[in-house]
Amino acid sequence: MTIIEHAEEIEHLSSGKTRVLVPTMGALHHGHERLIRHGRSLAGKAGQLIVSIFVNPTQFGPGEDFETYPRTPAEDRSLCIAAGTDILFQPTVEEMYSAEQDLGTNADTKLTGTLCGPDRPGHFDGVCTVVNKLFSLIQPDIAVFGKKDYQQLAVIKQMASNLKMPVKIIGSETIREKDGLAMSSRNRYLSAQQRAQAPVLYKALKGISENNNLESAARIKAARDMIAREAPLGKISYLQIVDRETMQELMEIDRPALAATAVQFGTARLIDNIEIDPVI
Amino acid sequence: MTIIEHAEEIEHLSSGKTRVLVPTMGALHHGHERLIRHGRSLAGKAGQLIVSIFVNPTQFGPGEDFETYPRTPAEDRSLCIAAGTDILFQPTVEEMYSAEQDLGTNADTKLTGTLCGPDRPGHFDGVCTVVNKLFSLIQPDIAVFGKKDYQQLAVIKQMASNLKMPVKIIGSETIREKDGLAMSSRNRYLSAQQRAQAPVLYKALKGISENNNLESAARIKAARDMIAREAPLGKISYLQIVDRETMQELMEIDRPALAATAVQFGTARLIDNIEIDPVI
Questions:
Q1: Would an 8 Å CB–CB cutoff place A94 in contact with chain B?
Q2: A133 vs B7: CB contact, 8 Å cut-off?
Q3: Which of B12, B59, B118, B205 stands the most exposed, by the fewest C-beta atoms within 10 Å?
Q4: CA A141, A147, A152, A154 torsion: positive or negative?
């Protein structure tokens, strides 16, 4: 595995091979490993698999956890090697944001008006800006993003389409602990008590997905009640059923839908979601 | 010359050659011709010269001249052929803005806080968004922009740098009528009387550039007085000396500077500028 830390070096990578990019913020866990292995399979033996690790300051809001976000460079490198990475791109903040005042991507569209958007103003602008930069530098043919950040995946698909970027965006399945908790670098912020309550997110979402006999509003209410009851240490930011493409709230599951939630446990903001297909 | 009207077709252009892009809004005049010939010389015989013609709706504000902007497709094609264009890319609005609600580039930085920026809110966002799309589709190695739109050139340089785009941005000299008026597709909006007064823009800017013995403020005042006197049909939007890189106002010409002006003649908003180097 080659490690590249400077933008100019990655720009001059030899091309001709299919290039697959897996962008991450590091603090890699088993969920990332599966994401990287998915990237490896998309690249094939002949292709080039690039993992980027960059904790992007512009996607963190004031009071969010940019400074304290976990950084585990040595473990990340081992995991990248084990998962078949060809190139690890680890630029510095100075390298990615060299200008005094940076121009970026404006992600203020319908897609970001729901779910995490209102809770995290500027977050998706920051995500799109850094992904735009990574795409410009690396020129991938394919980029892989986790479905745990489903809204992010939808926004990046929109960006690639709107800005005519020559890259295919692939979503990769969420990987879970045995008790259902979606793997996340932020899970390590949880106390033992919070950790014990956190699996209720997935349990509640599964309830929504399985309660075919109930109206959407009733399903949502049951899920909220379950979280309130089983996770008294958590505070629900949102719990909604949305159109899987547009991220707009759905009153009736008459098209491919997504049930999504964000719950704050102390300093940890956990998100999760589940795809729900309409019953035909 | 090949004419391409669909985004997918330009995406699959064979590569390997140096690609030079000259983006325009059509209504091509002799100034564009020189711009295209400049592009041809940068591409060389072996390279590929692409001219795009697209009247970009998102860079026009409400009440501006999007609908009435001159469109002269037949003449444009002849001029492109004469100037050595290999590929003419002429997409439709639907092709470039396919989505209901588009995500774009946010150009709200220091650079756009002066000169044309405050007069035309959203203008540079629209410019950067469409150029971003054109770059994604065409993947040019070099792109050429006219210096008449100096602030636009500076903003696009900033975008390419900030977003790490693998393209070199080249500025091309302003071409003028014999009486000094900068060539512009909008000159055809001028009445005979307005046309007779319009050369004062350049005359006033030259005055600023040549009056080395005066302070900047005095030079500006003299130029404003000259425009008021010689172009009573014009209304000055701005007339300023700015830093050529940052577009911030300069009180003293102690670095590479630009004197720039915008004057409204009826429906025609004319802009012009002149580079001024510090006297050593």
A1: no
A2: no
A3: B12
A4: positive
Model confidence over B115-142: pLDDT tens digits?
999 999 999 999 999 999 999 999 999 9
A6 in a structural domain: yes
Alpha-carbon dihedral sign for residues B160, B164, B167, B168: positive
Could you tell me if B120 and B92 are in contact, meaning their C-beta atoms sit under 8 angstroms apart?
no
Q: A-chain residues within 8 Å CB-CB of B132? A: 163
Tell me which of B162, B168, B245 to substitute to probe the interface with A (most A C-beta atoms closer than 10 Å). Answer: B162
User: Which of A140, A172, A204 corresponds to the end of one domain?
Assistant: A172
Of B99, B110, B163, the CB nearest to A162: B99
Q: Which of B6, B29, B30, B32 is catalytic?
A: B32
Question: To which H or E segment does residue A214 belong?
Answer: none
B180, part of any domain: no
Chain B residue numbers with beta carbons less than 8 Å from the beta carbon of A155 are 103
Q: Do residues B164 and B189 both lie within one domain?
A: no
* Total domains, chain A: 2
What does pTM read for this prediction? 0.94
Chain B partners of A111 at a C-beta cutoff of 8 Å? 103
User: Is B32 designated active site?
Assistant: yes
Which of B113, B139, B172 is at the close of a domain? B172
pLDDT of residue A15: 66
| Orientation of helix B123-138 relative to helix B150-162, angle to 10° | 60
Give the residue on A whose Cα is nearest the Cα of B108: A103
Distance (Å, rounded) from C-alpha A84 to C-alpha A34?
Answer: 11
Mean pLDDT of B93-116: 90
Contacts of A139 in chain B (CB under 8 A): 166
Spatial separation of the C-alpha atoms in residues A187 and A176, rounded to whole Å: 11
Judged by a CB distance cut-off of 8 A, whether residue A136 touches chain B is yes
> Do A115 and A208 belong together in one domain?
no
Q: In this predicted structure, what is the pLDDT of residue A49? A: 97
Question: Which is the catalytic residue, given A6, A12, A30, A32?
Answer: A32
Please identify every stretch of chain A with a pLDDT value under 50, giving residue numbers as ranges: none
The mean pLDDT of chain B is: 95
CATH code for the domain in which residue A268 is found: 3.30.1300.10
Confidence of residue B10 (pLDDT cuts 50, 70, 90): confident
Query: pLDDT value at position B100?
Result: 65
Considering only the beta carbons, identify the residue of B103, B136, B139 that sits closest to A106: B103
Residues A160, A151: Cα–Cα separation, whole Å: 14
A50-A52-A54 Cα angle (round to 5) = 175
- What is the per-residue pLDDT for B99? 67
Q: Please tell me whether residues A163 and A204 are part of one structural domain.
A: no
